[in-house]
């Protein structure tokens, strides 16, 4: 059942004593797995309500609860961003719906993030205030802080931890699963298999990763990224996973600028192939989307994935043709 906004407001009332809703509106989320809303109460305070639509999504929300609970006040104080706090939960139609403290701000599409430099601050600043860092610096600093989180936080929450070779093996298994659908272009399957067989790409140190980082999980308030949400896929694994969303930016130098800022902020320098694996993750996300659609018998998801895969196939062919032309001997 897809919960209505009114139903989610009622859940907030049940989960947090004293709330009297006066308004409710949608909150950006993964619509295939979650239904989310922001509820405004009688004191003008806001609460985010997040409800799972599948059993798998329910497991992810339970994982997020465990992760957020592991962020002690001392650890939260060290972070350069805010994170949500779970304030209540309700058993609802066989799943568990969670209510969070609302973080002020809104998500901004990736290709509009650069405009933060010219955006007005959320509150007046004194003349002596430090200049707002470039958005690529803000993102790089956020990623560095996430990847420097203590592994014990993940292990104590009983969340997955993978070695570099296990990350590669898991993707190989996913590739086999995607191939069985018969819906992935052969050229892309071969391209991904070649990358997975290139062992030099898979020599890296694993770290705590967010696991579902993208623009919808970054909260912008004024001219700053102030909070990170969506902590349902945290694990120890390949840090490149958290860079994959940056590949979708119109500016091809955007991801490189973030990596440069990330390198300056990290306690440990990133490996040389981080961005190449991020490209692989960005491409392979389309195969994962298709497999999810097939498993759920959602033809709309399958068609959407096939359309994007066709565009990717054409882009790869064009790029390879451009390289061939560039490398061809020139007539004297």
From TrEMBL:
GO terms for molecular function: transferase activity. It holds the Pfam family APH. Keywords: Transferase. Residues 30-265 form the Aminoglycoside phosphotransferase domain. SUPFAM superfamilies: Protein kinase-like (PK-like). Gene3D superfamilies: 3.90.1200.10. PANTHER family: AMINOGLYCOSIDE PHOSPHOTRANSFERASE DOMAIN-CONTAINING PROTEIN, AMINOGLYCOSIDE PHOSPHOTRANSFERASE-RELATED-RELATED. This is Phosphotransferase.
